[in-house]
Amino acid sequence: MVFNPIQIVPELYQLLLILALFFQSLGDGSDTPPAERWLPFFAGFGVFVTIVSWGAEGLIFGGAYKLDALSQFMKLAIAGGFYVTVLNASRQPSLEERKRPDYFMFLAISAWGLMILSSAVELITIYLALEISSYSLYAVIPLRTTNGVGDRGAAEAGIKYILFGAVATAMALYGFSYILASQHTSYISQLALRTWTWDGAPMAVVGLSLFLGGMFYKLALFPFHFWCPDVYQGASNETAGFVATLPKLGAVVVLVRLAVLLKPGLEITTLLAVLGALSMTYGNLCALAQTDLKRILGFSSVAHAGYIMVGLVSGTAMGLSAAIFYALAYVVMNLLCFWVISRIASDGRNLQLNDLNGLYKRSPALAFALGVGAFALVGLPPTMGFMGKFFLITSAWDHGYNWLVITLVLNSAIAIYYYLGLVRHAYTHEAGEDVPAPDNSAFSVAGASILAALVLVLGLVPGRVFDFAILAGKQLLP
Amino acid sequence: MEFGYPVLSTLIVFPLLAAAGLFLIKSPQVARAYTMGASILELILAIPLFTFKHNAEWQFVERASWVPQWGLEYHLAVDGISYLMVMLTLFILPLCVMCSWTYISKRVKEFHFCLLFMTAACVGVFAALDFVLFYVFWEAMLIPMYLLIAVWGGDQRRYASLKFFLFTLAGSTLLLAAIVAFRITGGTFSIPELMQFPFTFQFQFWAFLAMALAFAIKVPMFPFHTWLPAAHVQAPSAGSVILAAVLLKMGTYGFLRFCLPLTPEASVYFAPLMIAVSVASILYGGAIALGQSDIKKLVAYSSVGHMGFVTLGIFLFNLRGVEGALFQMLNHGIITGALFMMIGAVYERSHSRAITDNMGLGKYLPAFMGFWGLYALASFGFPGTNGFVGEMLVFTAAFQVSPYIGALLVPGALLGAAYMFRVSLKMAWGQPSSAKTWRDLNTREWAYLLIPAVFVFYIGLAPGLFFKLIDPSVEKLVSDLKQRSKVEQKVAAQPAPPAVAAVVIPAEPVNN
To answer: Domain residues of chain A, as ranges?
Structure first.
């Protein structure tokens, strides 16, 4: 296939941003405009750039890099998410001025790695892309200051993230060696033709399970989730907003691509289903006891990782589409929640539930947006979260995992308690003393309203966006 | 008939638009007047509904594609079963605005926002004919109701609102699974089409249980009723009115609309259980109400009993029973709604809901006591009031099916009279009187108490019009049920369990 650079314009554009940030980080910043001033515009432009190569199709770089509906859909989502997180981080109070170019550079690299990940169809490429996106995050998490000095919690979170990450990726690499040894190829399209039963290829099944472990680590699926609440809590609100959202898209895209191997009824598929059920139940139960907002959202990501499994194990194009849509919904909902959290904690503190008290009075718009985000995460209509969940269970029903679907719907009943807690504190409690002063600027309110509107509109009329998800799913599993 | 605008959609969208408009208003007084105006305009917009034809067809149908990839449709219509519920919802709204005119003094704008949002969702629930659309409205109404209780409620509002939310949401999670299962098995989300689909008994069994749990919690049936007294007592009076008049009806409406037509065989199979639970609700609700010292809690427990009559009527599977259930739904909405408004009115004077703080009103507040007496009489089904019609029909139906069930209802009805007399006597003539300085009803209170009173007498004395409205649909429902549960039993070659046979075949013919 002829290589045409226009096909990978989003990646090239992102690389350009990285280079610009890199050069800026070399200087002392006195003669360049601050990164948080110019980057949002260029990151926003990046969303349009991804549209240029929207219809790109092809298999390039020796068959390791595939451009299809899934990859382009995800790249658009990543570019959009990157734009929002950069905007969100542009007013970060707990980040030193001179480290800003570096900070944004690492974010950009991570997003770049995820873009590559969404096109990678070969296991080594996947591994490399995963590492690109992870390494930069290892560096970003400890970049938090409280009162001008480095934050101990953030350093701890960074260490936890890197240790867990190192183990998970080592495991993935180890598993990869098993896959290669028993199936003699690392291309997913080839792997899809091989047998994946325990009787037929036990070594490959073990290898794939370990390899998937690397993805589960990114996705924070039980039992690879231990870093998640700690890292969210330790990192600054804005950084957590990035860590909680975009890397999940990367993990989902790989899982969706690997899902073509996972026919319903295979041992490994059942393993996935069991992990999904454990993850959602465990995540929701743990979240019940939390009082730190970011820990709540951390355990909620563990639960949501479990929900996504429901779409993956169904073994149908609709299931994959539902998983893709749900991943998108998850990212939008979390971006909304983290946007609101970052704006409320205008002094960069970690928000406790009590800090939300009386928010309806202090900032009605943010309180409303938080309510929308919370109810969307529960999966109440008419939000995107409901539609996503509904698609998941519709696609999964009657494909051998009905018990998983029942587990999912019952989990909503557990989850409502702690999500409702956010609304309860924001709307029914009166503000005490020492509550943070929320940022009520037009910037903050506009961002929250746009994201909240997105959650509601895509909940009411998800059809158009879902068409793209279906297209992506059908290309993978015709 | 064409009216130039989609009637049902307008009735759903208009309150939402009006609610959005509230954000432009600053003064609380203007917000009240604005909402009042909006609720009257909503009633005017509903005028085309009066052309409802007396047949069993779906009317005012609106159908459009919503999410074609999953077969979701925007499908609205009403028939005889949902028509009265839609009307009830619309009529309740202005009453709610009026009864919270002075009752609600904080966050007035948000309060009316919740009321309007609530109305839209409730109309949606009763008009939706797409299963998912129904579910969307069903869940959407949780949020404003939660806020109504949690923000404007009494001292224990947080506990009560949380309990309300958890109970109802937990119940409806399995409903969602059932909806999806219906789609996968029956191939569509459209309720009228699913009604034609023959589901296997095995499927019906589980689907019925999943749906019945959601609806039983909403009704609420004993033993799922514990959220109701908490929610009713803590909610502001407008919240209690909506809760009693509209929300509880959603549960029984769910039984009528979904359980009976979609899972006829399972409905017949589970009927003995449902009848037993209904009778338990009637007796338990009545007995507990007798022991209350809080007026609002008393009325709340009486709701449990009254709703037991509704579910009983439904699961007797005869014409009189279902008619009685529908009448009782409407009547309970009117009477209990009015009683809650009266409790709100007296609470504004005494700032207490305890019976002992509200005694001896007869001498000082004659108009108030007059209305209270009327609604109390209607509540336990005094002849000439609407309560009599509904209760009588259920009684007839019960005796038609089995004299034993009928016999069990008699103490239930007696209990109703007992607790209502107990509280009314104390309120009218109890000593010492705390009402010496209180003023009697003002014009606004007269207005919102007179409207339900008109219906109490109208339905009580001349229920003919209402029979005409509901009868075709009820007849169709009952005959479909009889036919489908028989046909499918033949196909599946499953003999009815003896307990079912005992219920279905009347023990003694009763002429009525």
So the answer is: 264-478
